[in-house]
What does this fold into?
Amino acid sequence: MTLLVLAPSDDETARMFCAFAAERGHRAVMPQGFNEVCVTVTSGRDASYHVDLRVDGEQVRGVLHRGIGAPGGEDGDAMFAHAETLAVWWSALALWQGPVVNRATRQGFLPPLDPLLLARVPGVTLPPSSLGRPLYAAAPAERVNVHRERDGTFLGRDTEAQVPDEILRFTLFDPDRVRYVLLAGDRVFEPSQTGGIPNSATRSALAPLLDRLRSLGADFCLLVLEPTGGGWRLLHVSALPTYHQFEPVLHLVFQALLDLLLAGQP
It folds into this structure.
């Protein structure tokens, strides 16, 4: 059987995972078109369904889902083809019975990691932030992260990002207190700490938030947190971690993802 890594062609993290899996004797492929993969979704009037995923005729064993990227062009045909591709993959990944890292759901093609919803978890709050342009004058520049509001893309720190016709979010934070936590399968990592593993107190304090993420289908995500007296400020959360964000524990993270994809298989 084959592991399927669904990702844009320029996703270096996905390519590195494929190489890691191959080193451990597992075939992992990163298809760039339907000529490389066969997706069959069958549904019945009684709400029954069956999904079959095959690559080169071989059944897929597990899927690492990192999106399909942007449309290949701005013309109508390219946009239509991209929308159709997205619809097929969305249905397949939501309904397929095998293991999927960051499974598609009714709420989103990637897990819906809206900080406003995650802030409902006990002990989790949001940091002070503001929307607009130019740089929020009342915020000390050395404590401001700038994100594009429409998609959450990080644009820079300590300066106003030069992005025309965009609404920006400026988030206050204390750089000396920021913690990076990575959820990968059944394991939790803190890449900036010695050994890359959070201590038991941190794991216990984060348990409600991590449980909530898993309930949303988020098996692979990066959290940027600032501890407070009785909990955590959630500065940012991403379902698309990149390898440079967890390089100190790269092999441990990839092994955790591989274990999840192989779970329950002979």
Q: What stands out?
A: The mean pLDDT is 86. The first helix runs from residue 12 to 23. Helices lie at 12-23, 76-95, 115-118, 200-215, 250-262. The chain is about 25% helix and 30% strand.
